[in-house]
TrEMBL record:
Domain Transposase IS66 central: 165-431
UniProt-annotated stretches for the region Disordered: 49-91
Name of the protein: Transposase, IS66 family
Origin: domain of life: Bacteria
Bias (Basic residues) ranges: 68-82
UniProt biased composition (Low complexity): 53-63
Organism: Methylomarinovum caldicuralii
Domain DUF6444: 12-92
Length: 488
């Protein structure tokens, strides 16, 4: 490319001929084109530097220190730290007398200093909670053998069916499953905790092998959760990375308020989403990942929190794109605000619904104008994509009871993400299968507010004694959605 060598310390000499004028003009146009390309690249890099959890799908843990400070920054209230005046106190309730393990009595002196006798009229209970010194319990099963005194035939006793054939009983196997699946400990940490707390020494391989029968015993309950969640009227779906060694797989989640079903898959595409959803025919709430778009549009709700993050990114751009993004962002936030008010009123309010219908029309009009104004640049393409997805943002208006965000699925995945950060994670196909099973049980028990360890122990005891697990979780039956009054 021809460049102009100009001395900026003094005005350039005027071209003497028409040809020189054309040459200078062409060089200036080329320089202007270069400048525009550089400017676009600078804006793109600035936008990437400004990305965070508030305007993209980036997790909060990957935010820059500046972003974290902005996220955590709060206006000072002027109040002192700690409980405020008038705050109701919280005290531990006394354990009933029949549940107390030991009672110790402390009486006053029988005679007062004045010489009179002291009559006991009552007592003030003071309960102290402590942990007992614990150790493991060993049961030795002696299997005897003998010979017939006449024919010499050898005879041998047999272990009962309920006695485990390995060295780990149901309580220990359930405890290992609890430590990994509920508290996200790595196998090495489980090995250390077993020795520290219980004085038990098992090798890393033995602890890992204990998951093989547990995985088989979890199968019936895992399938029960999967079948039940696919019959729900409303379900949330999401996915996150799953690592097997250096390979990237994906953990998929299909959840409701009371159930959580997980699945590992090598793909993040529509095939994996179809395997997760199965025959699900209810209303699906997701982010804008295209793998879910085979689900019918009229029963598919996109997450408004994800939409707001996308609009935050547009609003952060310079010039007209930023102004259009700000208007779209205000409309989206108003929609979420009135949507929540409408839901809190249990859907009888025509006023809130009419406002939502007006916001819907306004939002579409702003998108159409922005798409036309920005043409084929990235802001225009983003707005056209939002117009293509537009019906999926408003399913909650046609089906009251449908949440506007996908928080239910994201909360279900969060324990898994923490577990992924604190362990080497899966190293085999067996690990890929075990993790969604144990996570499905743990997260479902948490939602049903039933004990995870006792459930695991029951499953392990049945599996060891009977070879078949008949235990099933008390999963709820689907409930009908509330009906909204039509807009007046």
């Amino acid at each position: 490319m021809e460049r102009l060598d100009l001395d900026l310390s003094r005005p350039p000499p005027l071209p003497g001929t028409v040809e020189e004028c054309h040459r200078v003009i062409e060089a200036l146009w080329r320089a202007l084109g270069e400048f525009q390309q550089i400017q676009a690249r600078v804006e793109e890099l600035e936008e990437q530097l400004a990305l965070g959890s508030d305007n993209s799908s980036q997790p909060p843990s990957q935010d820059s220190p500046k972003k974290r400070a902005e996220r955590k920054g709060k206006r000072p209230t002027g109040r002192k730290k700690g409980a405020q005046v008038g705050h109701p106190g919280h005290e531990r309730a006394l354990v009933p007398a029949e549940a107390v393990d030991e009672v110790r009595h402390y009486f006053p002196h029988g005679r007062c200093e004045c010489g009179g006798s002291v009559a006991v009229r009552g007592f003030r209970p003071h309960q102290v909670f402590d942990l007992p010194e614990i150790r493991y319990r060993v049961v030795e099963h002696r299997v005897y053998e003998g010979r017939c005194g006449w024919c010499g035939e050898k005879h041998q006793g047999r272990l009962p069916d309920e006695v485990p054939r390995g060295q780990m009983g149901p309580g220990l196997v359930a405890w290992i499953g609890l430590m990994t699946g509920r508290y996200h400990l790595s196998l090495r940490e489980v090995e250390a905790l077993l020795e520290e707390q219980w004085g038990l020494k098992f090798s890393l391989g033995a602890i890992s092998q204990s998951q093989i029968p547990l995985q088989a015993w979890l199968g019936p309950v895992y399938n029960q959760i999967g079948e039940a969640v696919r019959k729900a009227l409303i379900a949330h779906a999401d996915e996150t990375r799953h690592y097997r060694g250096r390979s990237i797989y994906w953990l998929w989640a299909l959840t409701t308020d009371q159930m959580a079903y997980f699945l590992t898959h090598y793909s993040r595409g529509k095939g994996a989403a179809g395997e997760l959803l199965g025959d699900f025919q209810g209303i699906l709430v997701t982010d804008r990942h295209g793998a879910y778009n085979d689900h019918p549009q009229d029963s598919h709700q996109y997450c408004w929190a994800h939409l707001i993050r996308n609009l935050e990114r547009i609003a952060g751009r310079k010039g007209q794109a930023g102004e259009d993004g700000e208007r779209l962002l205000r409309a989206a936030r108003l929609t979420v605000h009135y949507g929540k008010l409408w839901q809190q009123s249990h859907y009888p309010s025509d006023r809130y619904r009419r406002r939502l219908e007006r916001l819907k029309a306004l939002f579409r009009r702003e998108l159409e104008q922005a798409a036309q104004r920005h043409g084929d640049n990235k802001t225009g393409r983003s707005c056209r994509k939002l117009l293509d997805d537009f019906p999926r943002f408003w399913t909650f208006l046609d089906h009251p009871g449908v949440p506007m965000t996908n928080n239910t699925a994201e909360r279900a995945l969060r324990p898994y993400v923490i577990w992924r950060k604190t362990s080497f994670f899966s190293q085999s196909h067996r690990g890929d299968c075990f993790r969604p099973m144990i996570l499905s049980l743990v997260e479902t028990c948490k939602r049903l507010k039933i004990g995870v360890y006792q459930t695991l122990r029951t499953i392990c005891a049945q599996g060891m004694a009977e070879g078949e697990v008949t235990f099933r979780l008390p999963l709820p039956e689907p409930q009908p959605l509330p009906v909204a009054s039509p807009a007046g």
